[in-house]
């Protein structure tokens, strides 16, 4: 027998062994116990979080019964993906409509030994639209002995008509501490020792995927089957030494740009890419941020006692705002370095920028006129960069003038008279309140009408009179039709903005008269007009009669 990788050898054998997906495992267990088994399931989630494992466990719970003579052998075959009644299909290589037709044809066959014929379609989002459509009817009303379990990392690519026929379960990324605990159990069974901080780093590199973390652990065990250390991880995975990153960060915090640049140069000469160096530097700054906000002894920091002591020393004289600023600068540098040929210059400029602690000042201190210069050793990183001159006081007190002593034989200068205090300013009389006139109101309305819709509202109108809360307007183009209710409301809002109170608007000119005139529905109530008004954020100013001499079109 050849070597079996850890991800396959330590695959969960029971719902209780599934790591990080306890709510889904509990739901499926209760469904099997109560007999509420759906005909189709959709398992969604990122890679390596247990979708295929959960599908096999569910298939085993449904097909392995006490009546089976070869129950144990069937159970093992299902977990290996080799059972006759549990058909696993790769959606990436069987994605056409013909494969879907073959599946539909085989679904009519009875299972050979088990109660159900179960189809596990992995990477189902790779199926074509025609293949999905071919499966619609079968997935909606399959035979009683058929169950579907679909697994995908891209649920948005699965047709909604397929999703609506399935019970959907979303698998979450596995937390780092659960991955670390699972790695510890595996190494205990393998008889391999490991440093705590080394396993914590492997868990972070897994990024929520148990399979990725186990793959990294396989590589480390191949390099050293006796002990997993932090140095081994850095050497095998090509990662920068964390001690060198921390030394570079300490030099920057101390304001020693030369040392920081020298360490950066040494890292790059060792084959570390700028992207890897920036990622490690950002991760160290994140550790500092958590230490400031949550405390050095927080459970969010998987550090040993020595590392916590070093972090506590590093945090002296540094605040959260400053660390946030440094993280932002690292992120911006990493983003720009991908698209430029001078990424090395950006990296060096970042180290110098982080080292100039004496040029970091606090905005509140500047506003108060605080002249105290920041410490050059470990200045308060507040996220605000300023020149050294900007730390001077905004208001400088006048210096007293020294008078030289009189020379011998010279006449003493006459005493300077103290300047007379300025006469108190007379308060200006309050302006007389002018009576409100129609012309004054309209002048102010025209002055405030700056937007295009407001200009269209007041176009062609002039004020005639204002009395008792009623502003009368007249049409300069009296030959046109009456204004719309929407325009009248807009005029009222413009006048109310000037007077501070609502008024009634009356507009003269050509008005609607006559008892036999039919009631015309406002133009803005028509669906097509409403759509145009919403699209262009417009209002109806006026409605023109296309043929004023025709009585048949007068009401259109």
3D structure, described in words:
- This protein folds into 3 domains: 6-170, Rossmann fold; 240-388, Up-down Bundle (Zinc Finger, Delta Prime, domain 3), CATH 1.20.272.10; 438-511 and 522-549, GMP Synthetase, Chain A, domain 3 (2-Layer Sandwich).
- With 556 residues, it is α/β, with parallel strands linked by helices.
- Helix content is 45%, strand content 9%.
- Helix 6 links the parallel strand 3 (117-122) and strand 4 (146-152).
- Helix 12 (242-253) packs antiparallel against helix 13 (257-269).
- Residues 373-411, 427-434, 509-520 and 549-556 have low confidence and may be disordered.
Fold blueprint:
Elements: H1 6-9, H2 22-34, E1 40-44, H3 51-63, H4 71-80, E2 86-90, H5 97-107, E3 117-122, H6 129-140, E4 146-152, H7 160-163, E5 167-170, H8 176-190, E6 193-194, H9 196-206, H10 210-223, E7 227-228, H11 230-237, H12 242-253, H13 257-269, H14 274-294, H15 305-314, H16 320-337, H17 343-355, H18 363-368, H19 438-448, H20 452-458, E8 461-467, E9 470-475, H21 485-499, E10 504-507, H22 527-536
Parallel strand pairs: 1-4, 1-5, 2-3, 3-4, 6-7, 9-10
Antiparallel strand pairs: 8-9
């Amino acid at each position: 027998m050849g070597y079996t990788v850890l991800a396959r050898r330590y695959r969960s054998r029971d719902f209780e062994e599934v790591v990080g997906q306890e709510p889904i495992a509990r739901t499926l267990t209760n469904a099997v116990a109560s007999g509420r088994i759906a005909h189709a399931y959709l398992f969604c989630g990122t890679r390596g979080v247990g979708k295929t494992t959960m599908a096999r466990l569910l298939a085993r719970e449904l097909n392995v019964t006490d009546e089976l003579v070869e129950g144990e052998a069937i159970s093992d075959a299902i977990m290996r993906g080799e059972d006759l009644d549990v058909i696993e299909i790769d959606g990436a290589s069987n994605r056409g409509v013909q494969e879907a037709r073959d599946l539909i044809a085989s679904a009519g066959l009875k299972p050979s030994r088990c109660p159900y014929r179960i189809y596990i379609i992995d990477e189902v989002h790779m199926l074509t639209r025609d293949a999905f459509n071919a499966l619609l009817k079968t997935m909606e009303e399959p035979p009683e002995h058929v169950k579907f379990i679909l697994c995908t990392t891209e649920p948005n690519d699965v047709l909604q008509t397929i999703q609506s026929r399935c019970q959907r379960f979303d698998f979450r990324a596995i937390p780092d501490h659960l991955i670390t605990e699972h790695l510890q159990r595996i190494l205990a069974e393998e008889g391999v020792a490991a440093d705590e901080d080394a396993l914590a780093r492997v868990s972070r590199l897994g990024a929520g995927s148990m399979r990725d973390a186990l793959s990294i652990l396989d590589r480390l065990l191949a390099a050293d089957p006796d002990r997993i250390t932090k140095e081994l991880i850095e050497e095998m995975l090509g990662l920068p030494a964390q001690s060198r990153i921390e030394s570079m960060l300490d030099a920057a915090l101390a304001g020693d740009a030369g040392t920081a640049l020298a360490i950066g140069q040494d890292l790059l000469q060792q084959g570390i890419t700028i992207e890897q160096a920036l990622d490690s530097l950002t991760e160290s700054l994140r550790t500092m941020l958590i230490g400031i906000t949550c405390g050095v002894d927080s459970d969010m920091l998987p550090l040993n006692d020595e590392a916590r002591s070093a972090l506590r020393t590093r945090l002296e004289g540094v605040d959260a705002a400053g660390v946030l600023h440094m993280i932002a600068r690292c992120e911006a540098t990493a983003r720009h370095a991908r698209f430029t040929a001078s990424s090395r210059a950006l990296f060096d400029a970042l180290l110098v920028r982080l080292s100039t602690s004496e040029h970091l000042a606090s905005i509140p201190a500047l506003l108060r006129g605080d002249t105290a210069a920041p410490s050059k050793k470990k200045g308060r990183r507040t996220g605000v960069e300023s020149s050294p001159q900007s730390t001077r006081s905004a208001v400088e007190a006048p210096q007293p003038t020294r008078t030289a002593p009189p020379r011998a034989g010279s006449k003493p200068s006459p005493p300077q008279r103290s300047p007379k205090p300025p006469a108190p300013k007379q308060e200006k009389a309050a302006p007389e309140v002018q009576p409100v006139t129609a012309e004054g109101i309209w002048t102010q309305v025209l002055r405030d009408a700056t937007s295009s819709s407001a200009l269209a509202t007041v176009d062609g109108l002039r004020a005639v009179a204002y009395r008792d809360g009623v502003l009368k307007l007249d049409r300069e183009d009296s030959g046109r039709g009456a204004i719309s209710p929407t325009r009248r409301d807009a005029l009222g809002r413009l006048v109310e903005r000037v007077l501070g109170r609502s008024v009634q608007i009356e507009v003269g000119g050509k008005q609607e008269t006559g008892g036999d005139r039919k009631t015309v529905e406002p133009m803005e109530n028509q669906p097509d007009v409403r759509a145009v008004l919403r699209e262009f954020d417009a209002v109806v100013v006026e409605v023109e009669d296309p043929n004023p001499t025709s009585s048949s079109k007068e009401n259109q």
